[in-house]
Structure formats: structure tokens, C-alpha cells
Amino acid sequence: MGIIDIEEALELADDKGLDLVEVSGKSDPPVCRIMDYGKFKYQQSKKLHDAKKKQAVIRIKEIKLRPKTEEHDFQFKLKHALGFLKDGNKVKVTLQYRGREMAFSHMGVELLQRFAEEADEVGEVETKPRAEGRTTFMILAPKKEK
After folding, report:
1. Where along the chain do its domains lie?
2. H or E element, residue 37
3. What are phi and psi of 94, to 5 degrees?
4. Which DSSP string corresponds to 44-66?
5. What's the rounded Cα separation, in Å, for the pair 1 and 73?
6. Which pLDDT belongs to residue 93?
7. Residue 54: what pLDDT?
8. Which CATH superfamily is domain 60-142 in?
9. Bridge partners (DSSP) listed for residue 137
10. Exposed, middle or buried by CB within 10 Å (0-12, 13-18, 19+), for 112?
11. Per residue in 8-20, pLDDT tens?
């Protein structure tokens, strides 16, 4: 519409039953738009809501092992981890040592590597086995689909 006086712009907006919205106040002269501001805010909130819907939420699930974990328990926990990976979640595999088990930490790392090998078809190692105090952990992430 070009450059219009503020009172005239407010009158135009009032006649149409709309609002006068300042788009850019720093320019000279300030840029305004005649629009239904309530409808605009509603559409913005809808866009934001739809964007949140499409977001993929990745959670980290944790599986805890011990160096003396028996074969059946190992397979049971592996089955749960594979399910988590198939659902698109990451899996943190934690190995806890107690007492003198720390002297055999190499056995724990081997157990974690075996876990990673058996979960290889669904997940890949994101963080290699790393020791922190009395625990060793690694993180598995779901394989990316090609």
C-alpha cells in the first residue's frame, strides 16, 4: 500500500476487522502488515506442533552385566538389547565389577566385545568399551537404514 500515516493504517485495519502488526520496526519507516493476528498465532502453533510430531526421540536404554554373567542371562539381556535397537533406541551396556573382579577386567572387555559382535546385525558400536572406576561401558546405536 506504500507509506501511510499510522492513524490511517489503524483505521484501514479496523474497517476490515483485522489487526495492524509491526513486521520490522527498525527500518525507516517501520514496516507493518494488516492481518488477523489471532489466526497467525494459531497457524504458528500448529506448525510448531507438527514439527514436534515428526521429531525422532532417541532414548538410551541401559543393560547391566557382570563379568560372571551366565550364558542364559547373557542371551536374555542380548535379546532385550536387540529389541531396544530395533525400536530405534541406543543401548548403553554397563559391566560392573565387585571386589577382586577388577583384577580380571580384561574378561569384562571381552564380554562387551562379544555382546557387540552378537548385536552386530541390528546395531553398531558408537562408543568403544571404556573403563570408569569399577564399571566398563559401551554404547550401541541402531544401524542406519540405507
Report:
1. 6-54, 60-142
2. helix 37-54
3. -110, 130
4. HHHHHHHHHHHPPP--EEEEEE-
5. 75
6. 95
7. 82
8. Translation initiation factor 3 (IF-3), C-terminal domain (3.30.110.10)
9. 94, 130
10. buried
11. 888 888 888 898 8
